[in-house]
Input
Amino acid sequence: EGTTPHFENIFLGRCFEHGCLSCTDENKMADCQNIYNAFLDAVLSAPNCELDDNAYDTFISMVAPNLPEDMTAFWSGTYDIAHELSSITRDFYTMEDSFMGYLVDGLNWCGNADQTGLGFLECPSWDYDKCYGQATSVFWNKASATIAAQARGEVSVVLNGDTTEGAFRDSSFFARVEAPNLDPAKVTKANILLVHELGSIPYETCDEPITLINLWSLLEEKGIEYSCTDNPEYVFTLFTLHVR
Ligand code: NFD
Output
């Protein structure tokens, strides 16, 4: 898979739209081209697979989220349900609801062979062993650290209780980057929503945790309280709506 066709147009269109439907800063509108240039500079700052961990720092400083207290949510293995919950209940915001994540969510990108522009044919795999400094994974690593570090108050965590990889999979962005970057001075509690498909055989539950134990000990070490709820009532309602 190469860079998403029309990447620049999609990025700019999302910037104009999200940037000013919800912006408090009027300058964001005029800034879209500058924001795109900062993003492209990061992608082209080094050959594919050699991007520095900090490559996107200038871009991220221009779009970094500052979500309201108690409103930051994380998800892992639950992309669809987490975003439906966030848009229907408006109880929290995910990375992809934030301007920083919205701009590039679902897109793919990398530089071309001589780093003169985006490469539309094929991007290197994001397997860390084969290509550590891959343009998309370097971005999501830094974006994940950034959104985690700004969270304050109670956070929501939407995890998948059915996958045999475990709700708290070691290699996930949530386990590797977000949970470790929660700031105990700002985050008081993590409310874990463990989602199960209707009629599924759960892999783990709040009462019979497997990988969740590792998340709980990390939170305990940090002195962050937590709760764990299997298929909360309102998630169940959402599934019912789906089935209808
Ligand atoms: P997942 P997660 N490089 O469901 N986030 O915990 C790249 F570039 O297993 C959001 O890992 O949950 N992408 C997004 C990868 C991406 C890689 C990353 C990789 N090495 C992180 N491995 C996003 N919006 O796309 C897997 N992926 C893709 C943040 C995979 O195709 C969110 O704030 C899947 O679509 C959220 O709390 C996606 O990463 C947490 O990290 C997530 O895989 C979700 O990452």
